[in-house]
Design brief:
single chain, mainly alpha, 2 domains, 12 helices
Length: 212
């Protein structure tokens, strides 16, 4: 029974990934709004109902299963002492990226595929006002977590300007990596990690030079 359950879950995950890949290809080729669920189902070789069972809303094809979750960041920030918040965020990003690469290698998938898909997804989000707005709202929880933790580091309330400004800088910078010239040229976690470090270093410099 346990073995059967494991196979069932792997098959389910493979189907989800195939549907998302099909959706991204179609969105990129003919536009997000012009693509129908029926077209996605045909490209993924599944029934239309299978697509909607996995992704009830069309937007979910772009926003579901993001590995950089507020829950995992919150857990990392709770354990950050004696690290600073920005050091903890850096390690959280690096660890999550390594885990994603290791997962793909274990299943025989080229790790570069994930990072190429994330770059394609970022382009699609930037090109559509509604999708860009939802993406911005989705990053809100990450910003609030980082702002609260930076406030604790500095002895400031969460809604003080400096923690909020630093948090927005970090989250925006990490999001922008995928649509930059540098980000497009890198397709491995080890390469993208250097850009993560640049974002965190920029935010650190801002905190160091801010008025007391």
């Amino acid at each position: 029974m346990i073995a059967n359950d494991g196979r069932r879950e792997r098959k389910k995950a493979q189907t989800r990934a195939r549907i998302q890949d099909a959706a991204l290809d179609l969105f990129a080729g003919q536009g997000y709004r012009e693509t129908t669920i029926a077209q996605i189902a045909a490209r993924a070789d599944v029934a239309t109902r299978t697509v909607t069972l996995h992704f009830p809303a069309k937007e979910d094809l772009l926003f579901a299963d993001d590995p950089f979750t507020p829950e995992s960041l919150a857990a990392r920030l709770r354990d950050r002492q004696p690290e600073s918040t920005l050091d903890a965020v850096r390690e959280w990003m690096h660890a999550t990226m390594r885990e994603l690469d290791e997962r793909d290698r274990a299943t025989g998938v080229d790790p570069a595929h994930l990072w190429q898909r994330r770059a394609l997804r970022a382009d699609l989000l930037m090109a559509d006002d509604d999708l860009r707005g939802r993406a911005r709202a989705g990053y809100r929880d990450l910003e609030l977590l980082i702002a609260e933790a930076i406030g604790e580091d500095l002895g400031l309330p969460t809604d003080a300007l400096l923690p909020r400004l630093a948090a927005v800088t970090v989250v925006t910078g990490l999001r922008e990596i995928y649509v930059t010239r540098e980000g497009r040229a890198r397709t491995a976690a080890s390469e993208l990690a250097g850009l993560v470090d640049e974002v965190l270093a920029f935010a650190k410099a801002g905190l160091r030079t801010a008025p007391a």
